Input
Amino acid sequence: MSVKPDSDGLTDEQWTRIAPLMPGGCKGKRGPRTNNRRFMEAVLWMARSGSRWKDLPERFGKVSAVKQRYYDWIERGVFATIFESLSGQADMEWLMVDSTIVRAHQHAAG
Output
């Protein structure tokens, strides 16, 4: 079952592309140790909303755990690796840049 594109979640296609880049997730005695998809959806929710950590919805898990994991992944370079890998696979089909998006410095005119 795929998540709707307009929701906060990743589609199955998006998840398939980034899942192999995720650390952890190895099975423990009681099942998977981590839920990387839920964590990435929490990070994307934070980025889209611009909210503070304390405003993170409960469906993403404990705020303290998500926040700690986020800073741990930054320190370990996990996000840098993910972004680097995905930038080589960029889908440029819908890329549009015009003057409403990119502003020139006032002294650049002329």
